[in-house]
């Protein structure tokens, strides 16, 4: 993913301008083309050129948005998790780190983002079938784990051991993975995946409360 990525959603204080909306729309179109072609043909048989053609852009324009086809397929998941991390950072200092993680998860649950959840499931299935996607996903999660550990340490620097923060961050991301996997195994008909996430966090939480 390019380091100059524009925001994906407007906020009351910073609405997206026309240029940013166009960039976001192009990025989404490339992502959707990559997902569709990968589902139809398998990642190994999909080229960047084919994705660019399907999205109606040039190969050079593709490179302005994504480093490779794996990034195009997995686009979106990292952004949603990053928003979750930002929410943890903004939680009240009176909350323990685990309480902040649970509260941020409730915010995501209450948003009822059904299309992204369905897309997460599709991305997870594709990653399970394509080693290069799985490797890219694991690399992204490792970065997010490190970022989350830093956020947790910064929230309570005097009392948070860095090792404990890293373990907590890893446990949180494992809970997210387990919840999504359970949802997929039930053919996306079971409880809301974020409800499953809350249940999984409760199972883990006794160590961190």
UniProtKB/TrEMBL annotation:
**Domain named HTH tetR-type: residues:** 24-84
List the molecular function annotations (GO) for this entry.
DNA-binding transcription factor activity; transcription cis-regulatory region binding
Keyword rRNA-binding present in the record's keywords: the answer is: no
User: Which InterPro entries does this chain map to?
Assistant: DNA-bd_HTH_TetR-type_CS, Homeodomain-like_sf, HTH-type_TetR-like_transc_reg, HTH_TetR, MftR_C
Residues of the DNA-binding region: 47-66
* Region Disordered: start-end pairs: 1-24
The record's section on Pfam families has: TetR_C_14, TetR_N
Q: Any idea what this protein is called? A: TetR family transcriptional regulator
Source organism per entry reads Streptomyces gougerotii
């Amino acid at each position: 993913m390019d380091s100059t990525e524009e925001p994906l959603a407007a906020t009351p204080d910073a609405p997206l301008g026309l240029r940013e909306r166009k960039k976001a729309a192009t990025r989404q179109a490339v992502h959707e083309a990559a997902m569709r072609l990968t589902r139809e043909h398998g990642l190994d048989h999909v080229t960047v050129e084919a994705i660019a053609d399907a999205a109606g852009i040039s190969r050079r324009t593709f490179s302005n948005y994504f480093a490779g086809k794996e990034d195009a397929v997995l686009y979106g998941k990292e952004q949603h998790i990053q928003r979750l991390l930002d929410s943890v950072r903004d939680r009240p200092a009176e909350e323990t780190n685990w309480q902040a993680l649970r509260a941020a998860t409730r915010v995501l649950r209450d948003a009822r983002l059904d299309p992204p959840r369905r897309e997460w499931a599709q991305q997870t299935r594709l990653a399970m079938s394509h080693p290069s996607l799985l490797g890219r996903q694991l690399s992204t999660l490792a970065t997010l784990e490190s970022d989350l550990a830093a956020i947790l340490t910064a929230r309570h620097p005097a009392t948070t051991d860095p090792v404990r923060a890293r373990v907590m961050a890893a446990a949180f991301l494992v809970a997210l993975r387990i919840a999504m996997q359970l949802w997929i195994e039930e053919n996306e008909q079971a409880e809301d995946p974020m409800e499953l996430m809350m249940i999984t966090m409760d199972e883990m939480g006794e160590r961190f409360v």
